[in-house]
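A quick aside before the break. I want you to see a complete sequence-to-structure record at least once, exactly as it would be stored in a machine-readable document. Don't worry about memorizing anything.
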Amino acid sequence: MGTSASKQLFDSAGSNDVVKLRSLIKEGIDVNMTAGPEGITALHAAAEKGHQRTVALLLENGAEVDRKTAEGRAALYIAAKRGHVEVVKSLLEHGGDIETNRKNGRTAIVIASKKGNVEVVKYLAGRGANLEACRNDRCTPLYYAAKKGHVEVAQFLIDSTAALEASSIDGTTPLMIAAQKGRPVMVEVLIDRGANVEACRKVRDADSYVNMERISLKHHDRMDAPRCTWRPRWGSCG
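That is the input. The structure line, written in tokens, reads:
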């Protein structure tokens, strides 16, 4: 089968045309053929669109569940990023690796947390995904939820025993990044759940300084004000 068959395969996968896809499979099409230098397969295309029926049909007919694109993205990662929980379920039910990661170390639960896809996060956690999974820079799912202000995701992760004080490679904790990004509700959640407010002394940029000063005023009863005396290193602000 040539270019025409390849186009038909990707068109049917992208449009959720399972009737056409079944016909192509019956004719013997290679469901793992790739499109272009990106290395995208029909499974990747269907996962990105959230076409669960197409994903299931491809998997039942030999699609490689953990096949990665040239950028290192497996179908599970793609579906988690897009928030397609039913596709995520199908992929894992067909043997997908829950800890599959990109070259930078980012797993499905990390990207789902970053994007605020709480139902995907809950499902992955329920299937045993590592809540402390990190990128190469050691940023955990909770770190990304805090950074982006995804409160429901953060609350779930904390309730599921995610480490409140896990820090990135530069020593930034979820509370510190939430303050830096000006996420007041997230800061409230983290403090209420027991995050170390003394982390304010470690923050070194102006925005974090201003935000943490406000926090210290609001939570003066829970902070040792005399000890929280750091000042920003203005020259380090980029």
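Two observations worth writing down. The radius of gyration is 22 Å. The chain has 13 helices and no strands. We'll return to this after the break.
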